[in-house]
Inverse folding.
């Protein structure tokens, strides 16, 4: 409803401009809030107070003129002035009843599917195949996947791109160690990638012969040597299996088909340099080939370089990122390309995006967006580490989350079978880690805390999963299917209207996820729906309602709430349970 009121106010302001009441250059930011006191309306706006001074008018007098200029709309029953000049809006109950009834009948819960959906490429997760995934990969993987699922739910064509690190000098070291093990008749053990990497690095540091062989293998690999490519493909395949197992465990929708790593652009890197040369964008600086864009300067006012080729002829991340942008814009025909990468890479992506547009690798119509995220920190406020100070493997984090959740569920259900206990505990453990991350503003750092994320109170996964089971239990007692119940919903009690109003905001919240890449907005929304459902449940008897008609109406409203909670959690990549 906020978008509806915003549109009506915009039209009223345009009318007042035409009448000369407001200046033509007035373009206020319309801020609409839900009112806390429903007797004073459903939505409130302070637009009259914002415009009163430039208009030279009393806020209440201006509010009267704004209300008089509002177009008639069946969705709004009335607009009133409150206090010093607030405008409060009352939603039409009949319209609200119609909307929730239609949403209940719609498999997409009233979300309007995009008529002409965009093609959106999403770059996320992007682990380094030389090592195991660690906690630093969690945010990119789950935030990116939540946005992907929201975009698909809206009807857009989404192309997932897992830009894995599968190229570079480190692979010479790894291939040399693989070769050495095989030549010594040892079985190739890549179960512990971190251990394998450390062992190869130790050999590289200790043996000059080994280091020389590693460098030779890098050259051979980059030259397309068949033997090296076979070793390289074998290593990457095993490493990728580690990633795919974690994606499955996390409920992340990335597959092997979505992988398009750095190596995919290797043959295009020299072409990128040549085209930048032809466009007269390259400048040699200390032997390196660079691009200097005036809009990027350091604190001293010096223009910052974008290095696309090192003095020795090697290429950098900027070069492969430019090649990836060209592929995504010109081959995949992307309307938008979203990058879920650490916030600390903001300057790099801003530079690369600006250069890609300037060089014509992507048209100005192709939106290139870096949706950065902060770091996951420990209790000390520093990046999350093991007790010994090492990097925390993602698999170890998930193992501990599951163990803690199983113990928690066991304490609440001592008589539950071990099989069911493990099933519920594992689901709660994974959901808790994901939700604790997704519920935070992605642009900010956050403190990782097992006790908080596994709590059954507050804005947590266990609370929301339990909220869904409460809805499911009502339908189990009524011996009805939540997903098939249909019919009209009548809103008689204030708590019913509160819940219905919130349920009608699903589309607006989803737009915030897909346009701004902010899953935490969806988390807050689901939490609010769960809270309003609880209030509705406590104040409006369902199975013991005053009449059969009232009972069915409340069951339908409960079904819409339950389905909305479930759909919201599914978009976040969190599975619901029928029992906890």
């Amino acid at each position: 409803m906020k978008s509806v009121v915003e549109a009506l106010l915009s039209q009223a302001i345009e009318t007042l401009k035409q009448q000369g009441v407001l200046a033509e250059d007035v373009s206020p930011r319309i801020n609409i809030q839900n009112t806390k006191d429903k007797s004073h309306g459903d939505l409130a706006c302070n637009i009259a107070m914002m415009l009163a001074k430039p208009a030279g008018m009393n806020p209440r007098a201006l509010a009267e003129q704004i209300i008089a200029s509002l177009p008639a709309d069946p969705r709004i029953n009335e607009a009133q002035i409150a206090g010093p000049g607030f405008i409060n809006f009352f939603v039409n109950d009949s319209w609200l009843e119609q909307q929730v009834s239609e949403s209940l009948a719609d498999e997409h819960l009233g979300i309007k599917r995009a008529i002409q959906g965009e093609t959106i490429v999403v770059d996320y997760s992007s682990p380094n195949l030389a090592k195991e995934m660690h906690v630093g990969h969690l945010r990119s993987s789950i935030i990116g996947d939540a946005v992907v699922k929201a975009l698909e739910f809206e009807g857009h064509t989404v192309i997932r791109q897992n830009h894995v690190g599968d190229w570079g000098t480190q692979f010479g070291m790894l291939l040399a160690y693989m070769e050495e093990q095989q030549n010594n008749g040892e079985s190739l053990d890549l179960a512990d990638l971190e251990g394998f990497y450390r062992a190869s690095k130790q050999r590289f540091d200790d043996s000059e012969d080994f280091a020389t062989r590693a460098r030779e293998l890098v050259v051979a690999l980059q030259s397309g040597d068949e033997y090296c490519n076979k070793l390289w493909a074998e290593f990457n395949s095993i490493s990728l299996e580690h990633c795919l197992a974690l994606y499955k465990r996390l409920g992340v929708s990335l597959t092997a088909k979505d992988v398009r790593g750095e190596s995919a652009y290797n043959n295009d890197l020299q072409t990128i340099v040549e085209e930048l040369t032809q466009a007269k964008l390259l400048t040699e600086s200390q032997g390196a080939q660079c691009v200097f864009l005036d809009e990027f300067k350091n604190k001293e006012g010096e223009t910052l370089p974008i290095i696309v080729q090192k003095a020795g002829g090697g290429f950098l991340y900027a070069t492969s990122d430019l090649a990836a942008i060209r592929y995504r814009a010109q081959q995949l025909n992307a309307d938008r390309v979203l990058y879920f990468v650490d916030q600390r890479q903001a300057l790099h992506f801003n530079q690369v995006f600006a250069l890609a547009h300037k060089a014509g690798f992507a048209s100005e119509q192709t939106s290139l967006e870096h949706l950065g995220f902060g770091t996951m920190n420990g209790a000390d406020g520093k990046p999350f580490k093991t007790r010994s100070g090492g990097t925390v493997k993602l698999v170890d984090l998930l193992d501990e989350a599951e163990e803690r959740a199983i113990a928690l569920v066991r304490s609440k259900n001592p008589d539950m079978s071990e099989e069911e206990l493990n099933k519920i505990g594992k689901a709660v453990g994974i959901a808790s880690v994901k939700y604790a991350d997704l519920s935070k503003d992605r642009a900010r750092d956050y403190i990782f805390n097992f006790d908080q994320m596994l709590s059954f109170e507050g804005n947590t996964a266990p609370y929301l999963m339990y909220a869904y089971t409460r809805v499911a239990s009502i339908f189990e007692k009524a011996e009805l299917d939540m997903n098939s119940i249909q019919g009209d919903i009548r809103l008689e009690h204030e708590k019913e209207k509160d819940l219905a109003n919130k349920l009608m905001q699903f589309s607006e919240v989803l737009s915030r996820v897909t346009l701004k890449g902010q899953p935490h907005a969806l988390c807050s929304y689901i939490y609010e729906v769960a809270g309003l459902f609880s209030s509705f449940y406590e104040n409006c008897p369902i199975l013991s309602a005053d009449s059969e008609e009232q009972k069915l109406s409340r069951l339908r409203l409960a079904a819409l709430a339950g389905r909305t909670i479930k759909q919201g959690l599914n978009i976040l990549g969190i599975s619901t349970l029928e029992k906890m």
Remarks:
- The chain is about 50% helix and 10% strand.
- The radius of gyration is 28 Å.
